Structures are given as C-alpha cells and as structure tokens.
Amino acid sequence: MFRDLAADPSWAFADCAPKQTRYITHGYYTYPAKFIPQLAARLIRELSSADDLVADPFMGSGTTIVEALVQGRRAVGVDINPVAHLVSRAKSTPIEPAVLAREFAALTRALEANDGAPARIPANARIDYWFPPPQKARLGVLLAHISQVEEAACRDFFLVAFAQILKACSIWLQRSVKPTRDLRKTPAEPLAAFLRQARAMLQQNSEFWNSVPARVRENIAHYRTVECADARALPVEEGAVSLIVTSPPYVTSYEYADLHQLAALWFAYLDALPEFRKRFIGSAHATRAATALQSETAERICAELGTGKKAREARNYFADMLECFVEMRRVLKDGGKACIVIGNTALRGVEILNAEVFVEQMHHLGFRTHSIIKRAIPSKILPQTRDPVSGRFTSTANSNRVLAYPVEYIVVMEKQ
Ligand SMILES: C[S@@+](CC[C@H](N)C(=O)[O-])C[C@H]1O[C@@H](n2cnc3c(N)ncnc32)[C@H](O)[C@@H]1O
How far is the CA of 249 from the centre of ligand 1 (A)? Predict the structure, then answer.
C-alpha cells in the first residue's frame, strides 16, 4: 500500500512561498514541526462542511484550529504543552482591530513612560543561563506591563509577541531549534523587538478578523475550544466530531518540552522539567506499562531495535499512539474521518514505519482506510536531517547526518 504509492504533486504545495505559510495569524510564533496551513485548509475544505466540528488532538500552534474557523467550522484542540495552548488560543482569537490598537497604544505609552513598576522575573536559574542581565531586566519590565493588560484576549496576544522575541533576546543559537548556547551572540534589545513584533501581529490580526465569518467572530466561545490537555482525554462528547486533522509527535525526534522552554521559563510553566517531559508522547523520558501494540509492523520494528532504550522508547510511543486512536474513535461520528499527517523515520538504522503502524492499529480498532496520500515536503519548515545513531534531528551544520522524511503521508481513516 505504501511502497508503490507515488507522491501526489498537488499536495506538495511546492509553489507556496514561505511568506504564504505565515498568512493571517500563522506568523505569530515560530513553532517547530508545524504543518503548513494550506494542507490543513484543503483537508478541512474537502472533508467537512459548515458548522461541522473539526478536532486536532495535537494542535501545537493551532494551525488546524485557525483554518477550521476561517472556513466556518467549529474547532476543538488540545496540546499537552501550555506554551502551545497559549499560542493556539491567541492565534485563533480574532480581536476587533480598533480594540487591539487602543490596548497596544496604552501599553506602548506605559512602557515608554516606565514608571518604575517592579519587573516580573520568575525565580529560575535557567533564566540566567539563557539571558544576559540587561536583557533579563528589560524582559522582566516588559512582562510586568503585559501582565497588567486587563482584556484577556489582548493580554494573550501580547504574551505571544513576548514569547516570540525571547529567542532573539537570549543567547540561544539563532539558527538552531534545539537548546544550544551561542556565547558570541549579541542578543536583541527587548523593547524594540517587542514593539516590532507586536506591530506585525496587529496587521495579521486585522487580516484574520476579516477572514473569519462574522457568525464565528461574534460567538467564538461556541465555535472554538482549546485546552491544555492530553490527546487521550479530549474535551468532547462521544460521536461529536466530523473530522480530525492532526500531525502527531514522532518518537524521540524532538523534546517538545525543551523546545519551548524560554517561554515556559518566563511564564513559570516549568516547575519540574523532568516530570513535565514525561507527559509528552514520543519523549525519551516517557514511561508506561507495556501493552500489545496491535500492529505486526510495530512489533517487528521493536524486535529489530533489540532490548535496549530505543526499543523501549519505540514501544512506549506506539502504545501511547494506540490510546490516542482509541480516543479519536470515541469522539468521531460514524463516517467521520481522521487525517493523520506523518512521515517515516529511522532509529539506529531501523526504519520506523509510522504511517504503516498507524494504519494497522486503526484497522484493529475498526477504522477503514479512506485514502492514503503521499506528499513531498519541499518546505524548509521541517528539518531534513537526522543523527544516524540517536535518530534525533540534527542541525544542518552537522556533517554526520542522514536524510529524515523528505516525504510524508496523509493517512485518511474513516470510522465505520
Ligand atoms: C507535530 S506537533 C503538532 C504541530 C501542529 N500540527 C502545528 O501545526 O503547530 C506535535 C504536538 O504534539 C504535542 N504533544 C505531545 N504529547 C502530547 C500529549 N500527550 N497530548 C497532547 N499533545 C501532545 C506536542 O506538544 C506538539 O505540540
């Protein structure tokens, strides 16, 4: 089913310039491994109707949620990461442009006057690890002022602008998505960076406001639910969802808990990093009871990986994903479809055939295959290289690398 499948060029979106992938609110925040909005938009357009409920159990930065609202669907999404929850909430909240402009003017005035309000700096040694003292002090003042914005949607909006500038204001190696220090870096000046970022986002909010149907804008609480929760416990009644559009995490590719740690540090989400990491599916730190994987391919992959740590990580991952598919089946209506966007990877030279495993697991649960689309990934959004031993993504500067997934699958499964 998979090997002989030709890539469908109409799903590559090869003529889509990077700028087009950042239209409306998609440009608010740089979220590693987000899928391009054009892909989510097309699936939603072709596989659902107005006012249907569209879900994303791994919403990340909220791409599916935003696209569903633009097309007049209801949307529900969760992510285990509070940073993703904040970003998704802000990106999917159309704010009346005049209200936002007024709040921005008031915040700018307060920041420029700087009345000596106490800085808001969480007590965490990791802040000193990443931020030189001047940046730390100015970010603390900025956060104190943003925290005083009373209107919740505007406050979220400014918090995301704040989160987006943190990397530039720190000594995090600018070209790396992974936490790497660059002791020669000159960090950006926080106030100027924040005002620039917020101004660009103001424009994007206006575009979003004009793109979302008025009935959705006026009743956003009815149309949109986003929560910080586990993909295995969706805040949705049984049989309520018409369509799922999602891209799950991969096994030991990214430590998502670490990737967003700058924002998590400043917003004090990160009290206990080791415990926090364990909640992420695909994390090397996740632990769980062993269960049957309900996929011959998964069992074979785990056997080929041997008895060590990598085999355990793969086994945990497939077992966790099986539970996610059980939950997807619970929330879908009969005939509802789940679109899983996933590529194959490699761990210790063993091919990790995620798409094939997922199809087998979902068949076991009573889904039928509606269609399988193979697409080339022309975009630079996804990393293209992987360390051959650990299976982790590497920076392109690393010469000892192998190609990761330059193609991926959209597995469309139907509940019957
Ligand atoms: C590939 S990303 C999704 C990106 C998203 N499609 C976007 O466009 O931004 C996978 C997401 O799964 C989330 N995740 C990992 N474990 C989870 C869990 N147990 N429950 C819910 N989300 C989880 C990660 O935090 C990450 O945001």
Answer: 6
